[in-house]
Design goal:
Helix content: over 70%
Oligomer: single chain
CATH topology of one domain: Helix Hairpins
Largest sheet: 2 strands, antiparallel
Number of strands: 2
């Protein structure tokens, strides 16, 4: 009974191992695609920010700090985003849809500089890429966690559970064959005793 139960358990463990390996083979290429996209977006944002930050610095240098901070407070931004969840190999990843990004400059143009206007408008144009980067970054985090978890499960099945079950099955089969040989020897002795009488 125990041998039958262990054989079923071994079959289930091997099937689970194969499924987890297939899942891992599907997750890794997707993860690499998102990593590549994250790198590309990061490079784009760095180059864009390397143009935007000097504009803020120049603007801050031309006007007083109080006027600069007051102008930034008066910038009105409006985001209309839709958040959904998407399933990817049983991992729920975020999906962000941008409906509207609006920036209104409510400060006095006489007190501020053109560099500040340009910096804010360039930052507004960069927003969709920033949002996409944050989405891709979160997906990468979630996929890496899932890959690590799946790899641990695959290794636990491959190196601990399956060998342990196979060893126990081997031990039980050895004991059963030993009992069978013992019974066969006893039967042969009984036949010899019966024949001699």
């Amino acid at each position: 009974m125990e041998l039958i139960r262990l054989r079923r358990r071994l079959m289930l463990a091997q099937r689970g191992h194969k499924l987890l390996e297939d899942k891992l083979k599907q997750l890794i290429p997707r993860f690499l695609i998102y990593i590549k996209e994250a790198k590309e977006l990061s490079l784009k944002m760095r180059s864009a920010l390397s143009q935007i930050i000097p504009l803020f610095i120049i603007s801050q240098g031309k006007i007083s700090r109080d006027i600069f901070l007051k102008a930034l407070d008066l910038v009105n931004t409006e985001f209309d985003l839709e958040f959904k969840e998407q399933k990817m190999m049983n991992v729920r990843v975020p999906e962000v849809k941008i409906n509207k990004i609006a920036v209104t400059l409510n400060y006095s143009f006489q007190e501020t500089t053109a560099e500040l206007d340009a910096a804010i408008l360039k930052l507004k144009d960069l927003m969709p890429e920033l949002i996409r980067f944050s989405q891709v970054f979160k997906i990468c985090q979630m996929l890496s966690y899932e890959i690590e978890r799946t790899r641990r499960r695959v290794n636990a099945l491959e190196y601990l559970l399956i060998p342990s079950i196979m060893e126990t099955i081997g031990f039980i089969e050895d004991k059963l064959s030993e009992f069978e040989r013992g019974n066969l020897v006893r039967l042969m002795r009984v036949k010899e005793i019966v024949r001699s009488h």
